[in-house]
Amino acid sequence: MLGNSPTRYGTVAMTLHWLIALAVIAMLVIGKIMADLDNDDPNRFTLIQLHKSAGLTILFLTLLRIGWRLTNAVPPLPASLRTWERWAAHSTHFAFYALLLTIPLSGWTIASSSSSGIPTVWFGLFEVPNLPGMQDEPGRKDLHKQAEEMHELLGNLMILLLLLHVGAALKHHFWDRDNVLKRMLPFTRT
Fold first, then answer.
1. 152: burial class by Cβ within 10 Å (0-12, 13-18, 19+)?
2. Half-sphere exposure of 141 toward its Cβ, with a 13 Å CA cutoff?
3. Domain with 102 in it: what CATH number?
4. Does residue 161 form part of some domain?
């Protein structure tokens, strides 16, 4: 079933969820590896291009996911959830969407405000334009530095949010024994 049902997410929502989840985890790992590499390391350029391509892909997939979510009702949370758990679930999802938009945009700002002149080439297929006005900005260096700091901070917040999200899903599955996790797992029944 492509669309969501009253008891579980549909194929489109699940596919977008798991593609974004895997891409984000890969991005976080690549980002941490890149940060530890010397500027003259031959692998650095390749990892940076991969990181930028995947980040733009996450941005695009997130926009699709938000559009899908706005046009498809999501399965309701179990009635057994306490008020604070409902609030935490909704807040976590909102925070995920905010980070899934702002992290790639801050990365695109870094690439766009760079003085290196190295273009972003999406998986080697086509050049992605810089964000408008970034190269001509009088405070470009300050903007670049602020975007780098924000990108790193938001990436670390994403790690914390992922740990919270996975922990909550496992709590629901093993402790509460409800269907919260199963409704987002492919090839399972609720």
1. middle
2. 0
3. 1.20.950.20
4. yes
What is the pLDDT averaged over residues 110-134?
88
Residue 137's pLDDT is what? 64
What is the dihedral sign for C-alpha 33, 38, 39, 43? negative
Cβ pair 136, 113 in contact under 8 A:
no
Q: How far apart are CA 119 and CA 22, in angstroms?
A: 25
Question: What's the CA gap between 4 and 173, in Å, rounded?
Answer: 20
Residue 136: what pLDDT? 67
The model carries a pTM of 0.90
Residues in the chain: 190
Q: How many CB atoms lie under 10 A from the CB of residue 75?
A: 18
Q: What DSSP string describes 120-159?
A: EEETTTEEEPPPTTTTT-TTHHHHHHHHHHHHHHHHHHHH
Please name the residue that has the structure tokens 């903007």.
143
Give the amino acid at 14. Answer: M
User: What backbone phi and psi angles, to 5 degrees, belong to 137?
Assistant: -60, 125
Is 33 within a domain?
yes
What confidence score (pLDDT) does residue 101 get?
98
Dist. CA 71–CA 58, nearest whole Å = 20
Is 128 a member of any domain?
yes
